[in-house]
Amino acid sequence: MTIRFKFAAQKAHAAIHWMVCQGEDVDLHTALKSCYFADRTHLNTCGRPIFGATYRAMKFGPVPVEIYEMMKGEALWKAELGLERFPWELTGYRLRRTSNTQPDLDDLSESDIEHLANGFERSRQLTFSERTEATHGDDWQKANLGLMRYEDMLEETPQKMRIVEQLSANGRYMRL
Predict the structure, then answer these.
(1) Splitting the chain (176 residues) into consecutive groups of 10 residues, what average pLDDT does each group show?
(2) Domain spans of the chain, in order of start
(3) Nearest 5 degrees, angle CA 76-CA 78-CA 84?
(4) Rounded to whole angstroms, how far apart are CA atoms 157 and 162?
(5) If you placed Cys at 148, which of 46, 100, 128, 143 could pair as Cys (CB 3.0 to 4.6 Å)?
(6) Which pTM does this prediction carry?
(7) 114: left (phi over 0), alpha (psi -120 to 50) or beta
(8) Torsion angle, alpha carbons of 126, 128, 133, 139, to 10
(9) Which distant-in-sequence residues (6+ apart) come within 8 Å of 25 by Cβ?
């Protein structure tokens, strides 16, 4: 059984915009791991991820592929969202705010915002090495530098099998 979700591009856009509005420039590793922490904790607490991204196990931890593409400013995501430009740019390994507009958080639920803020705070408090270590859990290891599986991100509980079955059947149809 494989759990798949439809990627929530609007939520990812709002989350990236929110992160770059939190003061100083954000390094890419911090931002990507923030999304991973938020998606994983939200999945385990609320029964669904925030973004539904495709996660690739990379050398320095999980990378949400679509979010990384969006952070890099790929045209596909601008077109998908009907934008001419993003309110940030990636310079080297840092995301820098390029607009005075405020993020529109309407697409994010209260729990989405709470988990995003917690994931961002956790990620910012850790060093690069600590973040890397914190994201090299069983889910990352099982992927063996390939695509990660949401079923591996779920914590081991007596209900895990039932949750996996439910999300495998319905995940792709859920509105995140």
Answers:
(1) 94 98 95 98 97 98 98 97 97 96 97 98 98 98 98 96 96 93
(2) 9-167
(3) 135
(4) 10
(5) 143
(6) 0.97
(7) alpha
(8) 100
(9) 94, 95, 96, 97
